[in-house]
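Page 47, continued from p. 46.
Same chain as before, 179 aa.
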Amino acid sequence: PGPILGNMFTPANHTLQTMGSWSSVMASGGSLEPGIIRLPTLILGLATIWPMSMLARDTFQSRPFLLVSVALFLLCPIAILESTEARGYAFMVFFGTSASAFLLRYLLNGQTALLSFYAVVTTLGIWSHLVTVVVPMGHALFLIGTIMLTRKNTSVVRGRAWGGLFAITLAGVTTITAL
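Result:
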């Protein structure tokens, strides 16, 4: 695992996926079968159903819409492709979707513990592939817009938006520290 972590900034190194494949190969006794090497991406691709269902449940608040959104995700060509390649994009999709689900849940009910989870999954997403940084950047733009454009003078909405920005800052500091 040393060379995997040592080559963090090599563009072709998707660090968490490479570590996952290495672990999978070691657990299988050294088998280099394609299914063994791709197993971590398949697991993360399927695991993305959980945050996708959280997003759908919190957005639509209807079981039929939840099931339709999960079915559409399972049929989405990019989700299928990235869950079968031995690359880190399934990790990006999982962590990006998880971050969005945690942030939405926090904005709806204000549970501050969700901010820690948001920071951790965002950090892991960025660590798995640097392009994942666009997810918290999009969240930050949304939260800044919420703070600036909220017509109601409600401190709850603005307070939660500031809390979300704090979590993004925490994720940035954690990412820089982890790199």
